[in-house]
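Review form for a predicted model. The reviewer records the input and the model, then writes brief findings.
Reviewer: anonymous (R2)
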Amino acid sequence: MSIPTIRRRERIFDTLLFLLAVFGAWGATASFRSGGAWNALGVAFLLGLMLLASGVFIEPRFLRIVRYREPLVKHPGTWVRFVFLSDFHAGGFRNREWYERLSVEAQALDPDVLVLGGDFVVDAADAVRDIEPLTRVTAHHGRYFFLGNHDFLDDPRRIRRTLREWGIADLTNAHVSIRKDGHELQITGLDDHYYGRPIVPPFRPSVTLPHVTIAHEPDGIRDLEAGQTDLYLAGHTHGGQIRLPFLGSLAPIPSTLGRLADRGRKNVRGIPLIVTQGCGEADLRARLFCPAEIMVVEVGI
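Model under review:
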């Protein structure tokens, strides 16, 4: 998708939001003026306006910390804390103060491993400078990144170079091992599923050691069989961004896995999959029943 196409989509969605607000206000006013049974319709229009206002002006301010605990062996000797942030979409609807807030919150979580999981920008590569506050977060056993699909729209080499200059290690199609309290964990990062060339299956040096695969999109898990990794972490989907209770995402999930990979912990092909809702927005400047989040995964090894 080209940069002009993305900006055009943003303008279209902004226009639709405005028209919905106008229609809701008109509908509520007309219904209440009619009185009688029309009051019920007026209440419905009013509730719609409240949801629209919440999604655009209130919920995007929320940031939640979501935690998971995954033992990768029967009797873990220690736990490795992954702090996973993804889908920043700098140059879009978020300002630098938001990334300052993410930095403070992430550092307070005291990560063993910090993962910056791609989609650093909406489109223009120079917007990556806005996320510089995140590079201040320290981690006991390494800080890693890989690119997402949006990062390939302009100049992925510039984004990659900038992150490396800031001291973040590139884990694209790469493998690292970390040791904590005498226990070893293998970690493999994958290239973007759509624009990159991810290694399939991920490199796993030893089947006797616990192994985690991390990627921007969850789609790569479809290429794996049980035993080729013990845990798969991903972002990309934003959780659908606009959700309703009991119905879930109102928009199609941007993954070949569909709702199976919308958010949270799932099990795909016998492999635990955990998907974060991300830290930013794309296309639509709103979130509803789907706040931005920082994902913490405690891995038992």
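Findings: The CA atoms of residues 185 and 209 lie 7 Å apart.
Further findings: Residues 63-300 form a domain with the Purple Acid Phosphatase; chain A, domain 2 fold (CATH 3.60.21.10).
Recommendation: see findings above.
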